[in-house]
Amino acid sequence: MVPISCGAAFAHAADRAHVLLLPTHYYLFGGVLAVALSFLVLAFLPASGIDRLAARRLRLLTLPFEGRAAVSLVSFVFLAGLVVAGALGSRDPLSNPLPLTVWTLLWVGLTLVQGVLGNLWAWLNPWYGPWRLAVRAGVPPAGYLRLPAALGLMPAFLLLFAFAWFELVYPAPDDPARLALAVSAYWCFAMAGAVLFGYRHWVRRAEFLSVFFAMIARLSLFSLRRGSRGRPALFLGVPGHRLREAAPLPPSGLAFLLLALSSVSFDGFMRTFFWFGLIGVNPLEYPGRSALLVPNTLGLAAMFLLLCAAFLLAVRFGSRLAGDAPPAHAGGFLVWSIIPIALAYHFSHYLVAFAINGQYALSALSDPLVRGWDLFGTAGLYVQAGVTLGAQSAWIIWNAQALAIIGGHVLAVVIAHLMAHRLFGTTRRASLSQLPLVVLMIGYTVFGLWLLSAPTAG
């Protein structure tokens, strides 16, 4: 008999090691429930009452000082450290803190936090602090040039599309070295824009993360306002209370918000067996991203164009039912109602990935260069991929996903009802204008639930 020696075996798993498919009856029941709740909102919930409720705010506290510049400088130093780790650390995306921070903590985690707590990105972004230092060094606060007003939010829209393409279509978005190069180039680009055009105008119209996070933050419970002495004061309100004062978005802003929703939807759709069938690929013999560059690029663009067409048609038909409001003006108001659906689908789509990769992030941040460090005491964290397995975990995840999408739909109908009342003046005309849009929202809710229940690959 030949002696066999045994040693420890090490392995890791990402979120794609298993798939939790939402049961079919969940999305069928969710569609029926969405229809019923939408009807109740339009028939029995007066828009004037919603408006009064949204106007109420509870003042919680006054912040003792304005610390945005200091927090932003710390964020910049942290980002610089992540870039160094991306360039010099492990090439394993689950051991390197840069891809885990960008794709898990920032794009997934911070988006959800923004939707609940408010615009923390205004403090955390890595440009405000360095820009303030540049102003102290002599750079004019308003910059040297002006962004043409005709551009609207088009720069932010183009950058968001590039970001979505890099995340969803580019062959290796998780590669730490390539991501370090991309992050460094974008930081330099955005910083140059803030210096040339002024920070205020740049982050409101061109820097896509700031534009996106500011839009998501309008759904939050909390808001900051200047007090009598110029200090920021923290207020509490109902979800979406800040949308009560929202101005209509220009066409480029409407396109930006719809792109944010359609890109996350395509992230789920591009993995379904249905999509692989459309492009003639066997999902059980996945060829890799490099072989799907063209069809996935076209699919991303098509998903956005289809959503835009459906939304604009719904707004146009609704405006004809209710009165003579200009469709473009109505669309700029009503597109704000997309935010709850976008945030709900963001949560549902990334929930399993966040539960697992968030643990990897905590471990990688403690030892960013894989040199045996334990900066935060989490380097030896045992990553439990099994937290999403088992009947109990699956039940919790399924219900959280379904309730988030249905709840986001209902809140979207409420916000659209409020916006329509601002446009058309009476509850009856507002309700009539919402009928086509509610049909679209119900369809998108069912589509989102179907994505969570459809077999996936890749």
Structure explained in plain terms:
This protein has 458 residues and is mostly helical. It folds into two domains: 18-56 and 249-458, no CATH class; 63-237, no CATH class. The protein is built from 17 helices and three strands. The chain is globular and about 65 Å long. Residues 1-18 have low confidence and may be disordered.
Write the layout of secondary structure elements.
Elements: H1 24-44, H2 47-55, E1 58-62, H3 68-88, H4 97-117, H5 121-124, H6 128-136, H7 154-168, H8 176-197, H9 199-205, H10 208-217, E2 222-226, E3 232-236, H11 251-269, H12 273-278, H13 293-322, H14 327-334, H15 338-366, H16 391-424, H17 427-453
Antiparallel strand pairs: 1-3, 2-3
